[in-house]
Amino acid sequence: MSLVSLKFALFLLAAVIGYYRIPKKWQWVWLLLFSYVYYASAGLRIVPFLLFSTGVSYLAGRMMDRIKNSQTEKKLKQKRKRFVLLLMLLLDFGMLAVIKYTNFTLANMNRLFDLQLSFQAFLLPLGISFYTFQSAGYIIDVYWEKYEAEKNPFRFALFVSFFPQILQGPIGRFDRLARQLYEEHEFNWPRMERSLQLILWGFFKKMVIADNAARVVGEVFWGNNYQKYSGTTILVAVLGYSIQLYGDFSGGMDVVKGAASLFGIELDENFKRPFFAVSIADFWHRWHITLGTWMKDYVFYPLSLSKTMLRFGKFARKLLGKNLGRALPICLANIIVFFIVGVWHGANWKYIAYGLYNGLLIGFSGLMTPTARKWKSAWHIPAKSTVWHLFQIFRTFLLVNISWYFDRADNLTHAFALMQKTVTDFHFSDFRDGTLMLKGVSQIGPRLYNIVLFGCLLLFIVSFYQEKGVRIGEVLRAKPAVIRFLVYLLLLYALPAFGTLSSSGGGFIYAQF
Predict the structure, then answer these.
(1) What percent of the chain has pLDDT over 70?
(2) Cis before 480? omega within 30
(3) How many CA atoms lie within 13 A of 457 on its CB side?
């Protein structure tokens, strides 16, 4: 059930009405019921995967709590808890690995060793990467004794399956999300307006900006279509993909956060104006924030503070000096983290290249930081200079767009072919003589370009003021009812008048992960 569908709107309406009509002590049960109905609507066959992940994580928490409260010696307790942790993470991630990466492994083995291994027909459950990571984070937190394990299996099942977020995140943390899910909530009109405002803005980003941009992107990137277009058109399609992906993912997050907020539940922020980032590291602090913080807390810190990495750091400082020796282990940890991020995105070498590209840029940036400071000082570049700040934003935007070649192309070979054509077949004249607008993507036409450009301009203005600290939503809600009504009406009118649905029937890109 796509979030951009009348069916979902009616489903959400029924869930909200019932939530505030039933006794408050049953509200969490109501959410659990609707969450499973929502997930099962995509097919009953995928429900056992959700139950498996929920059961494994719940048992892991309970077993580790029981070990912690036992009268056993402390060292033995730790050993047993570690065994449970590793076993349960192996089961949780093992299911994900088997489903997503078996055929990828078989294909590479066939290619490497000239084998004829048959591919397996696996069902890929929706949202499996998101709820697996959310569950694994809970298991690790309980192991670290950050909080007690949840005793009620049905309450825990709600934490894993909460329906607005299950398909595309954000990846929630138990200590922030579970309490809200189990609390009793009163109906609140101002919160309802804020939630609906967020949903409406999310639909605008998705339907008017992302899905229109997707038509240009899809035309150029489809199969070998790129061969009939110039490098200029390919570059425009890559920029279009940047717009599509941001509108799709951030719009989806607005809808998800708004839908959760209708029940009084505030989900973690997942976007913070990423195209205002001044470095790739900054970009990842603003883009898919919950995946980034998950990697930081559960992979980066344990890895960079591990005994092996500390020993490596000591060795590197002796060999390469204090600065480089200190930066090198962090660089290595970042590359490993982004390799995992690439694997998380999917079973394809292009995603691994995408992850490594980001990891290498962040790692290299860390190594070059002392040198960059010296250059800035030598060239008298003020740290707070507006020109320097804009240059950093442009540089980051350029590097991010290069990464989209890997993300959007069909495969790694395709990505490099697109890059080559962009460079070798680029013509400035395409911007002047109408080639780009009328001939490059002839069946789409200038109207679509104008809609996307206007949508982007509106999005930029809103983002610019948000970056300045202005809370646009609050400003609008403080206006007289007539003005608010007109703004909401205009946004509603724009959805069918200028919006479109993607070829996947209104689905979101990140739901496939």
Answers:
(1) 96
(2) no
(3) 6
- Average pLDDT of the chain, as a whole number: 89
For 174, the token pair is 């138990």
| Average pLDDT for 240-248 | 93
Residues with Cβ < 8 Å from 233, sequence gap 6 or more?
220, 430, 435, 436, 440, 441
- pLDDT-derived band at 121, boundaries 50, 70, 90: confident
Helix (H, G, I), strand (E, B) or coil at 471: coil
Phi, psi at 442, each rounded to 5°: -60, -35
Two structure tokens written together for 150: 């949840």
Query: What pLDDT shows up at residue 413?
Result: 92
Distance CA 9, CA 5 (A): 6
The helix/strand/coil state of 478 is coil
For residue 504, the number of C-alpha atoms closer than 13 Å in the C-beta half-sphere is 18
Contact 54, 161 (CB under 8 A): yes
Instruction: Give me the pLDDT at residue 327, please.
Output: 85
Distance CA 255, CA 252 (A): 5
pLDDT band at 506 (very low <50, low <70, confident <90, very high): low
Segment 96-104 long-range contacts (CB within 8 Å, at least 24 positions apart):
96/128, 96/129, 96/132, 98/122, 99/49, 99/123, 99/124, 99/125, 99/128, 100/124, 100/128, 100/129, 100/346, 100/347, 101/343, 101/347, 103/347, 104/347, 104/348
Q: Over 393-443, what HEC string results?
A: HHHHHHHHHHHHHHHHCCCHHHHHHHHHHHHHCCCCHHHHCCHHHHHHCCC
> So what's the pLDDT on residue 441?
56
Within 8 A by CB and 6+ apart from 337, the residues are: 295, 296, 299, 300, 303, 359
Instruction: Extract long-range pairs of 233-239: CB within 8 Å, 24+ residues apart.
Output: 233/430, 233/435, 233/436, 233/440, 233/441, 234/418, 234/421, 234/422, 234/425, 235/422, 235/426, 236/436, 236/440, 238/401, 238/404, 238/405, 238/408, 238/418, 238/422, 239/401
DSSP-derived letter for residue 127 is T
Question: Do the beta carbons of residue 274 and residue 286 sit within 8 Å?
Answer: yes
Task: Using the predicted structure, report yes or no on whether residue 376 has a pLDDT greater than 90.
Answer: no
Q: What is the pTM of this model?
A: 0.88
Q: What angle do CA 105, 110, 116 make, to 5 degrees?
A: 120
pLDDT at 437: 62
Please state the φ and ψ torsions of residue 172, each to the nearest 5 degrees.
-85, 160
The residues that bridge with 456 in the sheet, in sequence order, are none
How far apart, in whole angstroms, are the C-alpha atoms of residue 471 and residue 464?
Answer: 11
Identify the pLDDT of residue 435.
Answer: 67
